[in-house]
Structure prediction request, 266 residues.
Amino acid sequence: MRKITIKGMDKEFALNAVNYVDKEQQPNNVINLQIYYLFSKNGKKDIGEPPAILDSSLVEFSRVQIERYIQNKGYLKARVTDSIHIKKKKAELIFTTVEGPMFRIRNFKDSIADPKVADLVKRSPEVFANVAPGKRFDTDSLSADRDAFYLVMKRNGYYDFYRQYMSFNNDSTYNKGVVDVTMIIGNPAGKSEHPIYKINNTLITIAATNGKTVGKADTIRVDSQFRFVDFSHKFKPHAVTDYIFQKKGQLYNIDNHYAAVRIKRF
Prediction:
């Protein structure tokens, strides 16, 4: 493989589009290729990087991936074609893009079954900055907004909230270079709302030096929240409980959970 060329695509996206070409069709690293040739003479073909061999099925796969990538960046009608130029037994892959119009968001609305979740959305406008009317339609940005709101939910007691509850319906049938986006947040199956969790009791278990939790342990009821079980016989309760930031009666907050996990690993 000699070279990969992206034509007709906005420079903002063309550089990254190369990454959507299948790795087996990517140009070889010159040094790694020479190392491969050097050692393969002695039958050692697992050292270095073997030459990339042109595969028409992988070229087509790459074309589809590049086309999907640029469509996700707001060029919903974009089409990508491929061609191959061969010179001196080396192939140049050329992917030519006809972008078409760039689509922008015209309207953004939501459809949320749980009123409490709907209120939380209204109180978190900064999370959805990527889907404001007039912005370029970008499915990667929608995914980023979904991930951001997932964390908002997890910081406000919604322990059982998953990204799958949240989706976007994109309507471009108006056909004038605009998209109407509807954010949908559904409820858990068979429930009228998402449950909100508060911290109750906390069990702390410390394994023995061999990693096992069997045998005799130091067991202490520290207070109304913490029960301390230490199989290592080396720790006092407050050496651990002082670094658990979620207290009884508080809303579950994923940030406090991970803070305790990081301290545990440290």
